[in-house]
Amino acid sequence: MTAASALISVVCGAATDQGLRRRINEDAYLADSPVFLVADGMGGHHAGEVASAAVVEEFAALAGRPSLSIADVGETLDRARRRVEELPPGAGAGAGTTLSGVVIADVDGEGYWLAVNLGDSRTYLLSDGELEQVSVDHSVVQELIDSGELDEQSASSDSRRNIITRAIGGGSDGEPDFWLIPAGAGDRVLVCSDGLSGELTRERIAEVLRTEPHPQSAATRLVREAVEAGGRDNVTALVVDATAVVTRGGDRAHETVPTIVYDLDEDTRPRATAGAAS
Fold first, then answer.
1. pLDDT at 222 over 50
2. Which of 62, 143, 140 is nearest to 102 (CA)?
3. pLDDT tens readout for residues 84-110
4. Comparing C-alpha atoms, which of 37, 195, 168, 175 is closest to residue 98?
5. Phi, psi values for residue 181, rounded to 5°
6. Could you tell me which residues come within 8 angstroms of residue 159 by beta carbon, excluding any fewer than 6 positions away?
7. Of 47, 175, 204, 212, which has the maximum CB count within 10 A?
8. Using CA of residue 247, residue 217, residue 58, residue 119, what is the dihedral sign?
9. Phi first, then psi: what are they for 241, rounded to 5°?
10. What is the mean pLDDT of residues 219-241?
11. CATH ID of 2-255, from 3.90.660.10, 3.80.10.10, 3.40.50.2000, 3.60.40.10
């Protein structure tokens, strides 16, 4: 899939699988410039599927614009939250969903990635061959890691790894985290549900992203390997490549610029709210 923006031209690929243990796929995604998001529904019995689909549908209304602002994303999140909270009994009441990903933003005429996150789906950036996790998991396990009570190796098998502390719906009113990242031609963004990051190591994810030349082949391979590694959850991956980026002065740059993450939320550490299992 190829998409052109006034600021960032992208090629993207997407793949999803229900995994080996779930009866349905409660993940939903949107890959339509300038919006690239993954939502991982929570609640079971089709409720999570309804919540994630509702959120993605709200954001689909933003597709086709040249860029989006933090206000655009925040207002859409508010509408999505109200929609999930108003789901009737038998049609998703009490369900929730995570949300993670990037949108294309305009900062003084330059192309930027605006990353957003609620929950434990993840957004990564591969730039100059280095993979960085942009988002911060909103989970009990992440809080324990941050406090020094748990190391990352133990976290992967901890029984609390699926309990999240912020979401859309599901009893949570937690606020999203935002980051602004200057984009560079050659950037590769991965957005995924925890069904991927829970099965594959960071090193393996990085290797696939570095070696698969096309974003669709990268997304397909990541999902396939996550299912083969256990497939304990639904698995979704979006891979977005920046092929050209407008820089200051209006030129389209074809060289990667240094990546600096600007945190627009003063408190990026996960804040405890009503816990929900993803």
1. yes
2. 62
3. 999 887 666 788 999 999 999 999 999
4. 168
5. -130, 120
6. none
7. 47
8. negative
9. -105, 130
10. 97
11. 3.60.40.10
